[in-house]
Recover the amino acids of this structure.
């Protein structure tokens, strides 16, 4: 299984999913059809065979459709039987209460993921 690296575009985030379980997603997710973009991520996560995942999320903004599909992606990680530990760093800008609340809502619906919220003054982007 190869690493999955996707460059960011205007409406889609940067993605770096490493086969060692280090996952990073950063930028904006505004696609009108997020399923098309996230399908590659689902396929990759379903094949991942590690016991621990460390996900860094530095999403600046997500539209409603992306929020749902992002939640589904995290559920797919939780449903992967080989993964025992899931750690999520949820970065958000200090004054962006919407992104903080999205993280909290997603966390409340997941069962096995450990969230760490990191408030930033200004996120640096890849």
């Amino acid at each position: 299984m190869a690493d999955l690296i996707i460059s960011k575009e205007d409406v889609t985030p940067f993605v770096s999913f490493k086969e060692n379980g280090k996952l990073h997603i950063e930028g904006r997710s505004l696609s009108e059809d997020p399923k098309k973009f996230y399908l590659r991520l689902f396929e990759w996560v379903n094949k991942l065979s590690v016991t621990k995942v460390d996900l860094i999320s530095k999403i600046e903004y997500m539209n409603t459709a992306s929020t749902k599909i992002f939640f589904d992606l995290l559920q797919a990680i939780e449903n992967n039987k080989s993964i025992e530990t899931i750690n999520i760093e949820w970065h958000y800008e200090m004054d962006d209460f919407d992104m903080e609340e999205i993280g909290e809502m997603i966390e409340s619906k997941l069962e096995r993921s450990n969230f760490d919220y990191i408030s930033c003054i200004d996120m640096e982007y890849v």
Remarks:
- The chain has one domain: 4-120.
